[in-house]
Amino acid sequence: AQSVTQLGSHVSVSEGALVLLRCNYSSSVPPYLFWYVQYPNQGLQLLLKYTTGATLVKGINGFEAEFKKSETSFHLTKPSAHMSDAAEYFCAVYTSGTYKYIFGTGTRLKVLA
Amino acid sequence: SAVISQKPSRDICQRGTSLTIQCQVDSQVTMMFWYRQQPGQSLTLIATANQGSEATYESGFVIDKFPISRPNLTFSTLTVSNMSPEDSSIYLCSVMGQGNTGELFFGEGSRLTVL
Using the beta-carbon criterion (under 8 Å), do A41 and B102 form an inter-chain contact? Predict the structure, then answer.
C-alpha cells in the first residue's frame, strides 16, 4: 500500500529564507512523486514531479525537490522565500497505470515580511 | 495541458437540498476525477467518471449521495444530494495529462457551505 506523510501542517519562514517542506512516502513499487501548490481559492497546480531518471528535479517558481530512495523522501526546497510563495503545498505519490493518487495532508507555508 | 472550468465556484446551501457541480475540460479526456477537500484536510477521491459507463466510486462514497454524469468526453457533473453541514467542502474536478505521467490538472474548485 502507498502512503504519504508531510511533516508539519504549518511552516513559517522569513522572506528571503530557505524553504524546506518535508515529504516521506511509502510505496511497494517505484513511485511517481509530485508536489502541487494550492493558492487561496484556487485548485491545485503542479510544481514539479519525479518519474524516473535524475533524482533532483526542478519545478516552477524556483522550487526543486530531490528523490532519495534510501530515505523514502521527496522534500521540497527553495533557496529564498518570496511573499508570493504563501500557499498550501501537497506531496503526492502515484503508481503508473493505476490512476490512483495518494495525497499528503498538506503544509501551509506562511512567509513573513 | 488541460484547462478545466468548474461552476459554481462557491455556493451556500440549505440542509436537505442538492447541488450539481459542472466541470468542463478544453480537450477530450477519457477519465475525469472528482475529489473532495474538507477544511484543513487533504484531497480524497470520490469517484472516477468514464464516458459511456457508470462512475467508479471509492470506499465511503455512494452513487445515491454523489451521482455523477459523464455525457461526453469534455464534460461531467457531480451532484451532492440531500446535503448536511458535513458536506461543506471544496469539490475539485481533475483530469490526467497525456502520456500517463500521472500529472493531474485541476479545476479551481467549488466551495460549498451547507447551513
Answer: no
Distance CA B7, CA B75 (A): 12
Q: Are B114 and B14 in contact (CB under 8 A)?
A: yes
Chains A and B form CB pairs within 8 A to the count of 56
B54 in A contact zone (CB under 8 Å): no
- CA B92 to chain A, closest CA, distance in angstroms equals 7
Give the pLDDT of chain A (113 residues) as one tens digit per residue.
Answer: 788 999 999 999 999 999 999 999 998 888 899 999 999 888 899 999 999 888 999 999 999 999 999 999 999 999 999 999 999 999 999 887 777 789 999 999 999 99
Query: Using a CB-CB distance cutoff of 8 angstroms, which residues of chain A are in contact with residue B106?
Result: 43-45
Question: How buried is residue A97: exposed, middle or buried, by Cβ count under 10 Å (0-12/13-18/19+)?
Answer: exposed
Three-state secondary structure readout of chain A: CCEEEEECCEEEEECCCCEEEEEEEECCCCCEEEEEEECCCCCEEEEEEECCCCCEEECHHHCEEEEECCCCEEEEEECCCCHHHCEEEEEEEECCCCCCEEECCCEEEEEEC
A60's CB contacts (< 8 A; 6+ apart) are: A46, A47, A48
Contact B4 A106 (CB under 8 A): no
